[in-house]
Automatic annotation (TrEMBL):
Annotated Ketoreductase domain residues: 11-192
InterPro entries, per database record: KR_dom, NAD(P)-bd_dom_sf, Sc_DH/Rdtase_CS, SDR_fam
Designated name of the protein: Glucose 1-dehydrogenase
Organism name: Sodalis ligni
Family listed: Belongs to the short-chain dehydrogenases/reductases (SDR) family.
Gene Ontology MF, one: oxidoreductase activity
One Pfam family it belongs to: adh_short_C2
NCBIfam families, A to Z: PRK07231.1 (NF005559), PRK12826.1-2 (NF009466)
């Protein structure tokens, strides 16, 4: 697809957590579709610079805006700085997320705050800042949240993560209704098991990996590109009438999963 034919030509997309894994794949795919990109991650490090170089090679404008998604003031700064540098933002992809494994009785307040502040609170307030920008400029926009099958599926020992993703499901549904009159669509993407750094322990354990793949009807883990393709759809013109939906990308895992 040439830039002249690209579905996102002239659009600017901000992707949180885009220095690696799913976020990197999303940023690159949106650039391939013609969008200019704002890379947001905790630090402007070698990983972020590599993504920047890859997107520049596609002929797109791109910047890095490092910041802490868990901090409300930093979220507002990220949006205002990015608008000052890029002129506008049309698409927000809330991809940044963390998880911590612990039995429920052992979860500390620090564990709870770490996960909920990034996965739910951070998404809430960077979305609020983005919507304020769209309102002030009287433009429509797209909000796409990278959720998880665990917005539906229980996951023992990951109560904080499941709580954040369950909250994200209802936040998305509520905002879809509230923001539709402004021409802003809001959707979730719920990946299952994907080959990313967050799953490094799983990928390095043949026994755990085999048990999980046994629960996936398509017989393989997902790849970051599988998720990025759905983001490209939700960001593009073909999804103009889609809002308030969760798109599950899991190879059939959600409806086939059972604890061993």
């Amino acid at each position: 697809m040439s830039l002249q034919e690209s579905s996102l030509q002239g659009q600017v997309a901000l992707v949180t957590g885009s220095a690696q894994g799913i976020g990197k794949a999303i940023a690159v795919r949106l650039a391939q579709e013609g969008a200019d990109i704002i890379i947001v991650d905790r630090a402007d490090d070698n990983r972020a610079e590599e993504v920047l170089s890859e997107i520049k090679a596609l002929g797109r404008r791109v910047i890095i805006d490092a910041g802490n998604i868990a901090d409300v003031a930093d979220n507002k700064r990220i949006i205002s700085d990015s608008v000052a540098q890029m002129g506008r933002i049309d698409i927000l992809v809330n991809n940044a997320g963390i998880e911590r494994r612990a039995p429920f009785l052992d979860i500390t307040e620090e564990d709870y705050n770490a996960v909920l502040n990034v996965d739910l609170k951070g998404t809430f307030f960077i979305t609020q800042a983005m919507v304020q920008h769209l309102r002030d400029t009287n433009r429509p926009g797209r909000i796409i949240n990278i959720s998880s099958v665990h917005e539906e599926l229980p996951f023992p020992h990951f109560s904080t993560y499941c709580a954040s993703k369950g909250g994200l499901k209802m936040l998305m549904r509520n905002l879809a209704v509230e923001l539709a009159p402004h021409g802003i669509t809001v959707n979730n993407i719920a990946p299952g098991a994907v080959e990313t750094p967050i799953n490094s322990k799983l990928l390095n354990s043949p026994e755990l990996l085999a048990a999980l793949i046994g629960n996936i009807p398509l017989g393989r883990l997902g790849k970051p590109a599988d998720v990025a393709g759905m983001v490209a759809y939700l960001a593009g013109p073909d999804s103009a009438y889609v809002t308030g939906a969760t798109m599950v990308i899991d190879g059939g895992l959600l409806w086939n999963y059972s604890e061993q």
